[in-house]
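User: Just a sanity check before I run the rest of the batch. Below are the structure tokens for the first item. I only need the designed sequence back.
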């Protein structure tokens, strides 16, 4: 039996992690999008990566930016950081949740903390950084894809660049509002 290779895709919220989860789910790989909302501890998160199949198992979640160091040390994932301008990402986040009560000061503080955590690992040998603007460049995305899953020759299709893949804001807000969470990842 082949050992599962683990990967993490993260960045600031609204950095196309949903798009990446679809892109990196193939017959030989599965990438879970935003499983953090259903994980009540680091052990729950770790358990997601313990499955013996598929060949590549990933998590694509902007909420894990503050846990990047622990994930890389304990779970030992290849990690793709999507580098998006903090102001631009925050504006997109506030627009995305415009119909919901969002504390803008707390959101901005969370973005700053997340950006700081991510920047600390940009030079790590198990980390690759892609700039948000380069997510429209086929060669740049393909290079990241092949780096995350070096032996997964699933062809990258150009039509994915025109897909608007994102979580539904109403579903996310409902899940957050109705399912208590320990917020362990933000500590």
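Assistant: Here's the designed sequence for the first item:
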């Amino acid at each position: 039996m082949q050992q599962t290779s683990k990967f993490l895709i993260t960045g600031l919220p609204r950095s196309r992690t949903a798009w990446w989860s679809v892109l990196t789910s193939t017959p030989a790989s599965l990438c879970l999008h935003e499983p953090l909302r259903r994980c009540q501890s680091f052990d729950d998160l770790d358990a997601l990566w313990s499955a013996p199949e598929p060949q590549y198992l990933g998590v694509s979640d902007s909420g894990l930016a503050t846990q990047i160091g622990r994930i890389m040390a304990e779970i030992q994932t290849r990690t793709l950081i999507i580098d998006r301008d903090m102001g631009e990402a925050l504006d997109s986040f506030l627009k995305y949740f415009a119909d919901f009560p969002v504390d803008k000061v707390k959101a901005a503080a969370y973005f700053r903390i997340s950006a700081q955590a991510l920047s600390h690992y940009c030079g790590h040998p198990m980390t690759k950084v892609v700039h948000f603007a380069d997510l429209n460049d086929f060669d740049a995305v393909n290079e990241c894809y092949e780096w995350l899953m070096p032996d997964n020759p699933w062809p990258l299709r150009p039509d994915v660049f025109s897909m608007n893949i994102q979580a539904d804001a109403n579903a996310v807000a409902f899940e957050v509002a109705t399912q208590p969470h320990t917020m362990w990842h933000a500590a």
